[in-house]
Every structure is written in structure tokens, then in C-alpha cells.
Amino acid sequence: MTPREVLLLARQAFERAVEEHLPALFPSATEWLFAKANQSDNKAEQIAAHQARYYLQERKELLAPKIMFFLRGLLDRSLDTAYQQFQTRSALQSTGLSLLGESEFEGTLSFMNMIQRLRDSGGQELNELNLRITGLFGQSEIKERENPFRPYILANSISEAVETMRFELTVSKVLKFALAESMAQQIAVIYRLTNQALQAHGVEANLSLRIAKQTDVSNSRGASASAFQHYRSQGESVSTVSRELHLHDWLAAIRANQVSDSSKEGKSPAPLIWLSAQATLGEAVRKAFGKSDIKFSDGNTYSVLRADSNSGGSAQVLPERLMPYLRELQSQGAFTSMTPALVSRSVLVKILGKLHKKNSVEGNSRIRKLREYRDDLMALCERSEQKMTLDVVIALSEAWQLDTRMPELLREKLNACDFLIAQLALMDSSWFLAIRHPARLLFNRISAVMTGVRGLTGPETYFQDEVGKIFKTLARHDCEVPGLFERIFSRLEASLEKDLRNLDRLSRRSVRVLSEAQLRFADSQRLRQEISDVLSVIPGFSQQFRSFLENEWVRAIVIASRKDTELLRSFCEFVPWIVWAIQPKSDDAQRATSRSYFPDLMHILRQGFGLLELNTFRQNALYSWLNDIHERNGQQLAAEALTFDEWQLRFTAVREFQAHLRNETDLRLQFSDIQPFIQAAADEIELPVRYLTEDSHSSQQFTQSPFTKAKKAVESDIWLDRLQPGCSFELFQTGEWRRMCVIWRDQLSCAWLVMTAFEPHPALADFSLIQSAFNRGTARLTESEEMMERAIQKIVSAADTAESS
Q: If you write DSSP's letter for every residue of 79-129 in order, what string do you get?
């Protein structure tokens, strides 16, 4: 077997071992959080630990598949990057899932501490695994970063899974450490099982010693790898034997198979003067976007950027084209003297802001692009990192304009935002690294919603106006305004949540019906529980009459609460009265009172029947049974029988019932529970209710590969998180994919309101139906990848292509 085949078998053993030990992860983490809360003297830490413990207990069913999903993605990437000199060129150009965590872990000790804890716990088993992986590839030097199953993979899987849950920052941090601590207790066993799988295929924990000798032609592949390592170790530039990379090479690779715009091809050669001689362009771009684990690799590392002293330094002469902006800044006190030495990063940021506003003033008649000013701005850069940032933004802008899946209106708006994005990238490096950066969230959401509402007349017009307002705001301001993108994104989310459901009368009424149904269900559950608590302790109480009170009569009370206060009160009082009336009495006075009030109770019962619309047969059967039981028990005296006042006390909660109140037990609803209440509430306002159903015949026709089926069940919960109001998904119905736009998600997540293009009436969709469809592969996101991720993958892939061409 080849090393790659053996490695794949080891991967299966490793993945199976993690999955088997995953259930034991959560009880141990819960205990760790409880102990931490008790031992800590810091109030904030105690609160965070208690909250993390609560979330872990409530959402562990969601967390486990997320951990496995990210683990599989990271393993895919790790297998491609293990001992890269043995991989094909296509493997090196893979643009799979990032091996790097969220930006909050970049450059901090917290993530490294998680890795170190797992590494220490792996102990001898990890050492043996490193030896086996090294020996499998015939190496003589152990490098843990080449081990596809290294502790980094497990730590990052936990980190990414917790991040997707959107907990508070402090809660998220302590929960990651708790899970890492729990994983540390299992990791030695996981590595032992992986070692056993490798040993079964003859991979021993030994190093192979190499004796240097003349390399013949038959070993040319190994010679190439050795030569590559020799050049790397000696620090010799790979570019000395190949042409120097230029920006237009990179942009040409991005525009592959596209019509090239000659006006964009500048006469300047635009060399990538910031790129280190020891690094490739692909490595540099991957690291910029957190798509490489170079930062956490073991042993000697190299920088992807040239040393600042060798990259051109500050400008000797200030660019003539930027002089008007520099004079304006000098007059505003940004610097004291018009000399190159005093032009700082802050001045560069301010110039980008002024260029952005200049674009906004002139409008579409003359859009200045960042590439036009590249050489002038490069002259003001003090560090290689700044120069790289400008070129990456230029490449991103090119990728956006060529992304045909991006709505045309958004491409048009972003075309005028080059300077703003460059300013943002220089001011906030997390723009490149953080998946949940507000600006990235904003652009991704705009793209997803514009795609989702396409073809829906009302929502499409509304959101196009909203996009116009957003970019009008961005045109008037720049990134020096604190929290610019955070505020715009928060306002957009609130607007979509509130306005989409109110755009047309049918959507508005459907939301109202669903909210009313939830309230009625909550009221019914509360009443049913109160009545059941009292009746369950009465020996020999009729089960049929108990069922009538807990179901039909509870429904009558809920209906009365929406109609008449007096009727509600009489229906609530009916419960203790009727229960007392059919029980034995303690004395003759109680018997006499029961007989005198019984006709009034029958009158209240008839009013309830009128609301419930029960058939005549059932009404007569209930009347007859109540008369018989009242007469029979009315003849009995029991000294221990409860008095009427005592029954009143037992049913206090029912007698004092107030509608529209909720408690914590109401927060878990199923669509099937509230569907009868939906229909009742809709009938009252004469609203025809349309439900989204999955065509079972179409579901049977739909086929997919076994690999896709296996992954969909894990991915569904993660990708459904992207289906916010305005976004869309596709459902396989009647032999074709039909696009559904999410108009509203109710707060309890049991039902969604969706609309289909060319269908005027919105539909109520059961959340479990949608989730089941994703699990079976009969539902998919309209945008399989978000806008920003598509653009990043495009420029990373183009960087590899430019390097190899």
C-alpha cells in the first residue's frame, strides 16, 4: 500500500475514535466548569463558567456534530498539506477549510495553551504517532506540524464548533477550555487506537537514517525534494531562477477564462515587492486570510514578507498626484512638515478616506480605482505588510467584479469602495482573518439577501432601496468613524427581522396567526398542567372526564380569554365547582348547596359546548354521565371529603388564570403542537393557511452519492444558521429545485414563513421538515459558499496559478 492509502486508513481509525469518545466529552467538561465556578474568586469568571455549563447541558446535541464536521474538514486539509514536497501541484493548490482559528486566537497564548494541554496529555502515544508518520514518509526528522492528527486539529475543531454557537465572548472562551480539558482526558486513547491502525499495516515507530550518496536518475523525485529543502534552508530565493511575479500576473490568473479589460492593464510592471524570496504568493495570501497554520508550526519558520529595510522604505519624494490631499491634511494638523519622513501610516489611512469620499462625490461618472493609485500609495507605505494589504484588496476587488453569482447591483456598489476597503484593512487586520468581522458579515448578508429576494416583487424592491441607503451611508463616511460597519450591520439585521414580514398583508397576517397560536398553546399547556396536578392525586377520578377537562375544557377557557372576560372567569370557576359537585360531601349542608348550584354548572357547560362546537351525541353523553355521578355521590357522606373552600384553594392557579403569560417551559415548542391552534386562529380571521410540504415522490426520485448523504446530516445544523430573514434555500419538489426565501423565523424556532417566486401566498414551514430535508440532501443553500469566501478562494487559487505559470 502507498503511504497515502495507509494514511487514509489511519484517518478513518482516528475519526472513528474521536466520534466514539465524543459523548464522554460533555459530562467531564460540565464537571470542570462546575469546579472552576466554585474555585474562582472572580465574579465575572464564575458567571461565565455557570453560563457555559448551562449552554453545554442544553446544546450538547448540536455541539457534537459541529465538532465532527470541522474535524473532517480540517483532516481533509491536513492530508493535503502533510509533507508538501511529496504532493502534486493540484494538492498544493487546494483551497479547503482553513486550519487557522478565529482572529481572537491569533497571536495570543489562549489557543496555544489548548494545544499544549492536548499535546502534554497525548504523551508517549503522540510521540509514537509522530514517529510513525515521519517513518511513513521516509523522513529522518520529526515534525509534528506534518502530522495530520496533531493536537492542533482537535483544538481547532473545538474552537470552530463553539464559535458557530454565537455565545458571549467570555462564555465562548471558558467553554473552549473546558472542552479542551475534557478532550485531554481522552486523547491518549484516541492516539493509541490510531497507532494500532498504523502498526497493523506495518508502520513502526522508528526513524529511518539516511546516508548521503550520489543521487541517480531513478531517484529524481527525491532529489527534487532535497534540492528544494536545500534552497529553502540556505535562504536562496526561488525567484532567482524564475521570473519576478507582478500584480498583473495575479490579476490575469483571477481573470482566467474571462474577457480581459485592456483598460485595466496598466503600463507599470507593478512587481510584488513585499513578497519574501523564501515564500510563494499562494503561501502569503493564505496566511493573510488565515488559511495556513504557518504561525503555529514547529521548528524554524520563515516570513512571507520581505524585511522592511529591503522592501523600498519610505518615499524619497512625495507623489505629485497625492500632494493636494497631503496639503489639506497638513493644514488640518495631521503632520507638521511636508517631508517623506513624517508621512505615517495614519496619514496613509486618511488619504484613502479622502480618495473614497472623492469617488462618492463624483459618482459613477468617474470611479477611481485603487489600482490606479497603487504606485503612489506604495510610496507612502512604511512596511511590507501595508504594501501587501493594498495588493490583496486590489485582487479582492477584481474577484468581486468577476463573480457572476454576486448580484449585479452589489458588484456596482462595491466597485466604488476600493479605497474604503483598503482603509479598513490597514486599520483593522482582523478584516482579513475574522470570519465574523462586521464588514464581512454585512457584505455576505447583502449578497445572500439580494439573491434570496430575487423575483419577489415587494421584498426585492424594498431591499434594493435598503442597499442604496447602506452604500449612501458608506459613501458619506470612512472607517475612521467608530463602529461604522457594526452599526450598519446591526441596523440591517433589525430591519430585515421587522420589515420583511410586514411588506404585504398576507405575510403580516400569517405572522400574527403564528404568534397567536403560540400564545394559545402556551396558555393551554399551563392550564392543562395545573388541572392535571390536582386531579392526578384524586383516587378513582374518571379518566374520561379528566381528559375532557384537560383538553376540551382547557380549549374553551383559552377561546373565552380572547372573547369575554366574564366568560373566562366563569369557565375557570367551573373547574373547582364541577369537581366538588361530583365528589361525596362531608355533610348535608354541602349536599344541599351542590344540588342548588348544579343547574348553573350545566348552563356554563352548555356555553362551553357552544364555543367548542362538539357534536350532539357527545354533549348528551356528558350531560347524562354528570347527572348520574352527581346523584350517586350526592347520596354519599364522607367525613374526610374536602369542602368546597378546600377545592377552591387547590384550583387557585386555574381560577386566577391570566392569558398571554409565558414561562420557561413554554420555550420548547414543536410545530405539530401548535398546528391545531394555527388553524383555529386562521379560521377566526378567515385567512387561508398554506403549509410547506415536502413531496415524498420527488424525495424518492432524488439521488445523491453516499458521501454527500453522510455529510449532509452533520452540515445541516451549521448551514441552517445562515438562513436568516431574507436569505434563501432550495427544496427539491416535483422533480426540480425550487427556491424558497425565508421571510420570518419565529423566536421559538418551530416554524418559518417562506415565500416562493411567482407564488403570492407565503407558506408556513415546519423547522423539523426543513432540517430533515437538509439531512436527506433534498434541501440546499442557494449560495453554497458565502460571497467573501468565494472571493478569497478565487484569489488564493489565482495566486497559486500565477506562481506556477
A: HHHTTGGGS-HHHHT---S-SS--GGGTTSHHHHHHHHHHHHHHHHHHHHH
- Tell me: the pLDDT tens digits for 357-381? 887 776 655 677 889 999 888 888 8
737 touches 730 (CB < 8 A): yes
Show the CA angle centred on residue 686, arms to residues 685 and 691, nearest 5°. 105
- The pLDDT score that the predictor gives to residue 804 is 76
What distance in Å separates the CA atoms of residue 730 and residue 528, rounded to the nearest whole number?
A: 40
Q: Copy the grid coordinates of residue 219.
A: 531517484
pLDDT for the residue 702? 42
The reported pLDDT for the residue numbered 670 is 80
Hey, which bits of 692-762 come out as E strands? 728-733, 736-745, 751-756
Name the amino acid, one letter, at 729: F
* Residue 757 φ then ψ, to 5°: -55, 140
For all residues of the chain together, what is the average pLDDT?
A: 78
Q: How many whole angstroms separate alpha carbon 153 and alpha carbon 147?
A: 10
The burial of 368, by beta-carbon neighbours within 10 Å (0-12 exposed, 13-18 middle, 19 or more buried), is given as middle
- Give the dihedral of Cα atoms 425, 431, 432, 434; nearest 10 deg: 160
Distance in Å from the first CA to the final CA of the chain: 33
Residue type present at position 216: D
Residue-level pLDDT at 103: 41
Q: What is the pTM of this model?
A: 0.63
Residue 805 CB partners (closer than 8 Å, separation 6+): 249, 253
Q: How far apart are CA 735 and CA 763, in angstroms?
A: 20
Burial code (b: 16+ CB inside 10 Å, e: under 16) for 328-355 equals: ebeeeebbeeeeeeebeeebbbbbbbbb
